[in-house]
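Open question from group meeting: does this chain pack into something compact, or does most of it stay loose? Before anyone orders reagents, we agreed to write out a predicted structure and look at it together. Recording both the input and the output here so the notebook holds the full record.
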Amino acid sequence: MKTTVQLLVFFFCAVSVCAQPDNTISISHAWKFFQGDDAAFAKLVFPDAAWKEIRVDRIWEEQGYDPYDGYAWFRMHVFIPSTIIANSYLKDSLRIFLGKINNYDQTFVNGFLIGINGNNYIHGQFTDDSFTKAPVILWDKERRYTLAADDPRILWDAVNVIAVRVFDQGGQGGMYTGNQEVSMTNIREYFRLVTDRENFAFVGDNLTKTIRTTNGSSSLTITGRLIVTAVNKVTRVEVFYADQELTLLPLTSQDFLIEIPVQDESAVVSYEFDFYGAEEIEIFAEETPYVLTPLPALKPRINGAQITGARPEHPFLYQITATGKKPLRYEARKLPKGLLLDPLTGIITGKVKKPGDYPVMITVSNSEGNDQRELLIRIGEQLALTPPMGWNSWNCWGLSVDTDKIIASARAFVDKGLKDHGWTYINMDDGWEIPKDREPKRDAGGNILTNEKFPDMKSLGDSIHAMGLKFGIYSSPGPLTCGAYTGSYLHEINDAQSYAAWGIDYLKYDWCSYDNIAKDTSLAERKKPYFIMRDALDQVDRDIVYSLCQYGMSNVWEWGAEVGGNLWRTTGDITDTWESMREIGFSQTRNAPFAGPGHWNDPDMLVVGWVGWGPSLHPTRLTPDEQYTHISLWSLLSAPLLIGCDLTRLDPFTLNLLTNDEVLAINQDPLGRQATRAIDDHTVQVWIKDLDDGSKAIGIFALHEMNQEYNLDLRKLGFTGNERVRDLWRQKEVTITDGVYSSIIPGHGVRLVRVMGN
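Structure tokens returned:
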């Protein structure tokens, strides 16, 4: 059996990193970079000494280079010794791994093209169109290129030049994973341990999952030993062990059913496959989900924000959100003049003429009882009085979004109960417009046209509103969107009028091709397009929440409210990795003073559930504890909560993440304060958020992969030590001793509590 130490090594050792050092050459450093384009840059003898050095573990914009749509080149000089052939089990092919590239690439070795967008180049197979018209979602595709060992393009025992031509579209560019390498192909290249076809399923007292082993070789038979071990992450007790001899004939596969007892914390499941005869080991580990959120009671409970706003004489739509045994009946006392409540659906509609604050007493009842709570309706000039909560199509469907997927997502909000917890917006991202290579893009009056996937926007909006939900859309201030569809440049008034006619409630306005319009990178040029669309939105008779998406350039949090934004992206795009989520979430420190009702810092969308940027999806690569951290941190940050997964495939674990009303209440607190970091001792961070009722929410985060035994002395944070402490995920009060809250925090996990006076 495996020891605990071995299991931890297995978990934190990625397959590519675990390759034998004597047949792998790291090329993660010493790259040269130039923004521009010239075919000569690919040549072996091109003089690149004057080029600047660049890191390849982050996009070029984060290193001071201009954010523009266009070509740039990376060059790397690397000595490739023939000894790596002798040290390899398979000796037929050389592999060049470049990680991920944003957005498209052509890769050359010693002046010869070897690959395009992750596909090996075969002469005559690709045209230029396959490069420049590739889908924008290729930013998330790993680039692996192979050459036969006897390929004359390789210079064995000599310096080789790898040149990568990158075309950036949409504001972020370059290689960015930091794990680039050259190696011989090995038998692991043909063996696949497939664990992401499905999530662990809760079946009685067990978690079950079918894994698959596959041999992709047409000639090699793979033999070996598969060992599966599961250990409780916190207690370190082994809860599952299996040992299986395995023979995989060419192009065959074999499935295995894993059954693990349900745990109070994650279990670390380690898969090891020892290849007989090859002296190679395939290692992978994952963590099992565990549910903390209690099921809703049968008696009604009113959830969601305690305040909502609209502008005078603009259409008003609000869904009273409550859980409890259906059917529910809704009442509202002292509604302002002009508003009506449907007592069967809980949807409030109408228009209010007179500005002001209107306290409304809401009652929800059923056969088990009732619940009451005050809702403050504020009629004025400010929207988004709490951070928007909803769904956006991009992180799952990318450019493959269509009307059916939007409607299915809205229905999932209703059918799976998300609407009952305050989730409101159904936001359609890029891909609804006419693409750049088709005409006409607009009608004779300058009004934007939709593509065949969206034949009737007004009907789509009406369907979403009828469910008590709100409808969001996407555009760009440039002539093209990030996906190369029609943007709003020079047609802002037309588009704002179209949005109002369709019933749009939310606009995500993405910088994208405006790089080609802006005169320079000055603050005035960064503000200009957002002022223009803000003026256009102000001229229509509809409330449209305004989301600025320009990746935090020029410290947008300092001026986002000035240009009329209700929220603004503070970072580049998030991906479903710990590295991405950690770097984005825990960097939200300078912008806290600029968050508040009506204007929010947006660290990007949620990456839980099934994601993939369309059309192929996979379960998020975040572990369960990393997902608890994700939701907890975004709630403390008063961040907009926009789900990015396929809502039709929500499992009990993901629903548990998205329907904990005590956690969501931290995000929706009417005070609107963003949490700040109070303690940072490198392995643990403590973040504190002031709440409207005088209590405080505290998140204790383990940034290290190891579990952390942590004692938080509340008195050192300004408390008396006599307060009550409530575990928000478990929804129960916990005992503290002498003012100290003690807990074991799982690696990359969190403890989220609320500290209240007695």
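Observations to bring back to the group:
Confidence is low (pLDDT under 50) at residues 1-21.
The domain at 389-668 is CATH 3.20.20.70 (TIM Barrel).
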